[in-house]
Design brief:
The complex is a heterodimer. By secondary structure, chain A is an alpha+beta fold. Chain A has four helices and twelve strands, in the order ααααββββββββββββ. The mean pLDDT of chain B is 87. The chains are: A alpha+beta, B mainly alpha.
């Protein structure tokens, strides 16, 4: 059949299809049978549409859960603020002193995974490393007091040199007198404050913290208290320090 | 078979979006795509006319509830495409037809959903219609890209 014949056939079929479509449009809305056909067709399509229904429901459930979670979080924040206000009001009424625990809350925790008997007073291994943004020199705390600092870092773990280690040396200051010295360990569980000029009225119970000397340690980190003077030679005294961190009983450290 | 799959995909995404998104007419675009690459044969493009009719009526039964809207729209689009495409000389269809093809594909997105909006109306009818055009536009561009790519392959 030639091209003209094709065009004619296409036109005839096209016009027929148009008339049928118009007819359907005109009469079908009034036919009750259409509703039955719509129902049957809808039922048949349940099978191919089923995955879409499942996916849509899953998405809607996830969105609902997410909204609920956000709403709960907002509620928790509101309750915390309300709780803080009430605590403040209570403290004002009773004259009680309130300490801010914000600094403590901001600290992150690492678990001690190894404390070898051979190097008991020298180092520990923790379960946080480069992946947790641990860097060499980072300070570790226990009970809010200096415990040591990171000596080496792996991807998932780090080694922390303890303040009782004989190779641990950091500048420190006696807070009451502002005398500067060096904190070091003796490798046997003791912490010492060295190079304090003799005869400066240093007494037991005075607080020792990190000094603003050196690049890695921030100043003012609490270390412990002076216990007693151990020795005095060449005009400089060495003091025994009782560390604030419990050096025998810690399973986690903060940083 | 391809047309059946396209119809089912269009239906699938319409169910998936649950009315929150207006799915472009993939089925009618598939018909036009096939017309553009169809060889001249004894039956011409009769398959396209009746496929558009059948696809339209099934779409109406599934999503409108009254057969005729997309049925009529699809047939109109196919007839226009056949007329315009048939008016081009065979060698002319293979070169420099990018803009014309864009017009034909856009027509397939503009006409069929227009009838329900015009006849049934509704407050949100026009906004949904425009939304559908916005979603359809990138699909049309993508289809033209594939069309031109296929055309280049054939011309090599």
């Amino acid at each position: 059949m030639d091209n003209t014949g094709n065009i004619t056939r296409e036109r005839i079929h096209g016009i027929t299809a148009l008339i049928l479509a118009l007819f359907l449009l005109g009469v079908s809305s009034g036919l009750g049978v259409v509703k039955n056909i719509v129902d049957i067709w809808g039922t048949l399509l349940i099978i191919p549409e089923y995955p879409a229904v499942l996916m849509r429901d899953a998405f809607l459930r996830w969105r609902s859960w997410s909204q609920d979670k956000n709403s709960l979080n907002e509620e928790v924040i509101k309750l915390r603020e309300e709780n803080a206000r009430l605590r403040l009001d209570l403290a004002k009424l009773t004259g009680e002193k309130i300490y801010s625990d914000d600094a403590h809350n901001n600290l992150r925790t690492a678990r001690v995974t190894l404390r070898a008997p051979m190097s008991w007073w020298n180092e520990i291994r923790i379960d946080k490393g480069e992946a947790d943004k641990i860097t060499q020199g980072l300070v570790m705390f226990s009970n809010g007091y200096l415990l040591g600092r990171v000596s080496s870092v792996a991807i998932m773990s780090s080694w922390v040199e303890l303040i009782t280690s004989s190779s641990f040396m950091i500048p420190a200051v006696i807070e009451e007198t502002r005398e500067l010295g060096v904190i070091t360990g003796d490798g046997s569980g003791n912490v010492l404050l060295r190079y304090i000029p003799a005869g400066r009225g240093i007494k037991a119970g005075m607080n020792v913290s990190t000094a603003m000397i050196g690049e890695q340690l921030p100043p003012g980190l609490p270390i412990g208290k002076i216990v007693s003077e151990i020795s005095s030679a060449s005009g400089y005294a060495t003091y025994k320090i009782e560390p604030g961190a419990d050096m025998s009983k810690f399973y986690t450290v903060n940083y | 078979m391809l047309l059946v799959i396209l119809w089912l995909i269009q239906d699938f995404f319409t169910v998936l979006c649950g009315g929150s998104m207006q799915i472009p007419g993939l089925f009618i675009m598939g018909i036009i795509y096939k017309i553009l690459f169809a060889d001249d044969n004894a039956d011409g493009n009769l398959w396209a006319i009746w496929s558009a009719f059948a696809g339209g009526i099934l779409w109406d039964l599934r999503w409108i509830g009254i057969p005729g809207f997309f049925t009529l729209g699809n047939v109109i689009v196919v007839l226009i495409v056949i007329q315009i495409w048939g008016a081009l000389p065979p060698h002319g269809r293979k070169t420099g037809t990018g803009f014309l093809v864009f017009v034909l594909f856009e027509l397939s997105q503009l006409v069929p959903p227009l009838l329900p909006v015009l006849i049934l109306g509704g407050d949100s009818g026009w906004s949904l219609y425009l939304l559908r055009q916005a979603y359809a536009f990138p699909i049309v561009l993508l289809t033209i890209y594939f069309y031109l790519k296929n055309l280049n392959k054939l011309n090599l």
